[in-house]
Amino acid sequence: MKIFCAWPAMLCSVAGLLASSVVIASPQLLKGDPAQDLGSRNPDSDMPIVIGHRGASGFRPEHTLAAYIVAIQQGADFIEPDLVVTKDGVLIARHENVLAVVELDDNNNIVFDANGAPNVTQETTNVAELEKFRDRLTVKFIDGIAEGGWFSEDFTLAEIKALRARERIPNVRPQNTEFNDLYEVPTLAEVIGLVKQVEARTGRKIGIYPETKHPTFFAKEGAHLDGSPINQSLGELLIETLVREQFTDPSRIFIQSFEFENLIELQNQIMPRYQVDIPLVQLYGDITDASVQPSSNFSRPYDMIYNAAQGADLNAIYGGLANLAVGGITPTTGYGDLVSDEVISYIADNYAEGMGPWKNSFLLRESLPEPVDGDGDGVAEITTQLTGEIEPFLAFALAQGLDVHPYTLRTEEQFLTLDADGAPQTIIDEVVQILGLGVTGFFIDQPIDGVRGRAVFLDEFGDEESKEDDESNDNETGLDAPGNIIILPSDDRDSE
Ligand SMILES: [Ca+2]
Ligand SMILES: [Ca+2]
Ligand SMILES: [Ca+2]
After folding, report:
1. Which own/partner pairs from 219-225 qualify as long-range (CB within 8 Å, at least 24 positions apart)?
2. pTM of the full predicted structure?
3. What's the confidence (pLDDT) of residue 477?
4. How many whole angstroms from 316 Cα to the centroid of ligand 2?
5. Distance of CA 377 from the midpoint of ligand 3 (Å)
């Protein structure tokens, strides 16, 4: 049996090991002379960046090397690993520390069926099916919200490596379930290894855009299954890993977080200790206080509400921010209390180089009385219309010189909207619109549509230099052949 693999050795072994039953065959991108510089993003370019959100998560189960490879092939400038930690202190790429979620009753107890099985409501791995890990099933409070399931901090890396990734939203992306149980959960070091291999082979300098997930939970509040504190600093582990893997070029990394304290700590304490200075991006959730505990934390930065509730020294933690937040920092401080000019100036002046806002928080929209069928397939899935109003914090952040990278653009109709005139937007329309507001990049689940939309925008509005940058990008990414990474089930190998 001959396995043909045009990728560098590491990627072939990645495909083989991670997927044990897959091989990544003959990607167009990496054909030709390895020494040939196929072009790379010019870090000085004004061209807005396309960030592959959790990889190309519209095409492969999110946060797998396969998802990141497809994103790179589709022309993403950056790939985005969300980071959580294992029991033995290794950063791995998962959207959440919960590896599979189970149903809870009103008293936060796990619901079991007559056969003693829990009801899995969402999963990004197959952990729920593995008998040997049944003893890890538990209920925890993650940022104040009860969650039942299996959690990364209760698994060693070796145990994590026994799991296989699954599509998180199979009802939206049924085609991705074809790739269920093929890929391992990658470590951050493996993600860095991937972009290094791509650079060695093609010259493309792909960037990495890691997010620290639940840093307060991991550092201060969270416990392992046995009750012992987790006590891990995601910021420290992240910088330590980047330095150890010799991936510290500030033009190729943005570090993002929904929490404030860990970014300030990175700027003032952790990065100076390692003598690096990597750009930081302050994420913002909903600014209307619509999503709060006990159901969600999307409207409030958890570190602030935790520290305020604990009676911590807020001035010591947040410096001038402590007094600039509307009403001061309290157990109910929301992102909406942190969008004034004064707060944004403070962030720009003191620690962050960028802001990552939720697109709905500045491109205002309202619900439609009836869903609309935007693509004419007979299924009406558009449920909102833009009002035409833009929240002023966006322009202010840009005027402060911050990079602004909104999230998350998605191609499927249910994530699209009507424009202010009532016409259905395509994903290309949305990219063109958002770039027209001046943002300097965006997160997207389908990077290929991000690259296409950017090309349409630059064609219409770009200067000559950015058009040239964009054209050199076209050549390197195989835009005409988005599907040219072929992942074959092992049974098909013999016929290859
Ligand atoms: Ca993320
Ligand atoms: Ca900084
Ligand atoms: Ca439709």
Report:
1. 219/262, 220/306, 221/306, 222/140, 222/142, 222/153, 223/140, 224/87, 224/153, 224/154, 225/136, 225/138, 225/151, 225/154
2. 0.89
3. 44
4. 18
5. 5
